[in-house]
Amino acid sequence: MEKKLVVAIDGPAGAGKSTIAKLAAEELGYIYIDTGAMYRSVAWKFLQEKQVFSPELVGRLAAEMEITFKPEAKLNRVFVDGTEVTEAIRTPEVTEIVSKVSAVGEVREAMVAQQRRMGEAGGVVMDGRDIGTVVFPQADLKIFLTASAEERASRRHKEMLAKGMQVDLQQLQTDIEARDKQDCEREIAPLCCAEDAIYLDTSSMSILEVTAKILHLVREH
Ligand code: CDP
Question: If you take atom 6 of ligand 1, which residue's CA is the nearest one?
Answer without folding.
Answer: 36
